[in-house]
Amino acid sequence: MTTEVQGVVARGKGEPVEITTVLVPDPGPGEALVAVQACGVCHTDLHYREGGIGDEFPYLLGHEAAGVVEAVGEGVTGVAPGDFVVLNWRAVCGQCRACRRGRPWYCFDTHNATQKMTLADGTPLSPALGIGAFAAKTLVAAGQCTRVDPAAPPEVAGLLGCGVMAGLGAAMNTAPVARGDSVAVIGCGGVGDAAVLGAQLAGAVTIIAVDVDARKLEWARQFGATHVIDSRETDPVAKIRELTGGNGADVVIEAIGRPDTYRQAFYARDLAGTVVLVGAPTPEMEIGLPLLDVFGRGGALKSSWYGDCLPERDFPMLISLYLQGRLPLEKFVSETIGLGEVESAFAKMASGDVLRSVVKL
Ligand SMILES: NC(=O)c1ccc[n+]([C@@H]2O[C@H](COP(=O)([O-])OP(=O)(O)OC[C@H]3O[C@@H](n4cnc5c(N)ncnc54)[C@H](O)[C@@H]3O)[C@@H](O)[C@H]2O)c1
Ligand SMILES: [Zn+2]
Ligand SMILES: [Zn+2]
């Protein structure tokens, strides 16, 4: 049986998203049908509709979600109907080279994501990050469902499905920040603030937040920033060096995805420090750096996809910390909205009015 739901679809590059009928088939072998309860609006959804990720339009947007498993297909043993789950875009396969070498956070076997949902006329939809959760129901690979404690509200739990996990993990897993480190985070949206929080959780002593929006800097303080820099007014590289005894930060996390801010990150780190790029660049972006500086400054230049997380390991642990009152994930939820308000949420994101708008279904 095919279920008919309303979903948020991007039909073409730069076109406003629209709500339209989406057909969701029953789960096949290895798949799960999930009743979505909440789904955050991430900058990556906007990247999709701007054509920054690919041109497999139409896209079914939404990928930061939590919900309840409604049905599972043949052979699914990991989750069952009624389970409260966070959807993930890294269903670790256990088979690929990365998995076999014991580095499953590099597993990116998107083949396990299903692409069977369609528009009413049968046009196949590309679900954002293999999820497509701006819809009352979505069909995913069963491995994309990670069970967590149902005591967590869905609008909070779902955030772990992308941006907040990406930021927390950039600090805790990719860098990784060590106790006593100095950390700077450039760009303090949902991802950057999560990196600030992750740095604090990992025991960083100095946490410097950089943004071009005073409200964002205020919020970053609430997540644990010890210093803030408005980079419209102050040169962030010079200021980060000043705040770190002239050395530069041990870890600089770039959470925007732009060449100019990556360059700031590169020069604001300590010799032998680490740069982590978690912001997502678009295809036309390039960067030129003196090779002598890349060589001479040592250290590590890393990128972080999804915070190098392992959903099965990290989501339940982070939800436990949240339920114990040790990880204020609820502070990321600026507002809850309806399915029809995704386009206006993009505008609010662009104007800096929100950290996360979360669609409740
Ligand atoms: N690597 C991953 O796995 C992953 C996961 C999720 C999101 N992302 C990417 O992370 C990035 C951030 O996502 P978000 O949801 O936090 O976006 P966002 O739009 O909420 O935040 C971006 C922040 O950067 C600030 N900013 C913009 N230009 C700046 C500049 N020149 N200098 C300093 N600050 C500046 C903005 O004021 C804003 O606070 C996006 O590129 C998104 O696609 C990556
Ligand atoms: Zn794998
Ligand atoms: Zn995302």
Layout of helices and strands, plus pairs?
Layout: E1 3-10, E2 18-24, E3 31-40, H1 43-49, E4 59-60, E5 64-72, E6 84-87, H2 97-100, E7 118-119, E8 126-127, E9 137-141, E10 145-147, H3 154-157, H4 163-174, E11 182-186, H5 190-201, E12 206-211, H6 214-222, E13 227-230, H7 236-243, E14 249-254, H8 259-268, E15 269-277, H9 291-296, E16 300-303, H10 311-323, E17 333-337, H11 342-351, E18 356-360
Parallel strand pairs: 4-8, 11-12, 11-14, 12-13, 14-15, 15-16, 17-18
Antiparallel strand pairs: 1-2, 1-4, 2-7, 3-5, 3-9, 3-18, 5-6, 6-10
Helix pairs in contact: 4-5, 7-8
One zinc ion is lined by residues 42, 44, 63-64, 162-163.
In words, what does this structure look like?
The structure is a single chain. This protein is of the alpha/beta class and 361 residues long. 26% of the residues lie in helices and 27% in strands. It has eleven helices and 18 strands. It has helices at 43-49, 97-100, 154-157, 163-174, 190-201, 214-222, 236-243, 259-268, 291-296, 311-323, 342-351, and strands spanning 3-10, 18-24, 31-40, 59-60, 64-72, 84-87, 118-119, 126-127, 137-141, 145-147, 182-186, 206-211, 227-230, 249-254, 269-277, 300-303, 333-337, 356-360. Strands 3, 5, 6, 9, 10, 17 and 18 form a seven-stranded mixed beta sheet that branches. Strands 13-12-11-14-15-16 form a six-stranded parallel beta sheet, sandwiched between helices. Strands 7-2-1-4-8 form a five-stranded mixed beta sheet, with no helix packed on it. Strand 1 and strand 2 (18-24) form a beta hairpin. The two termini are 22 Å apart. The structure holds nicotinamide-adenine-dinucleotide (NAD) and zinc ion (2 copies). Residues 42-44, 47, 162-163, 166, 186-192, 210-213, 216, 231, 255-257, 261, 278-280, 304-306, 349, 352 line the site of nicotinamide-adenine-dinucleotide.
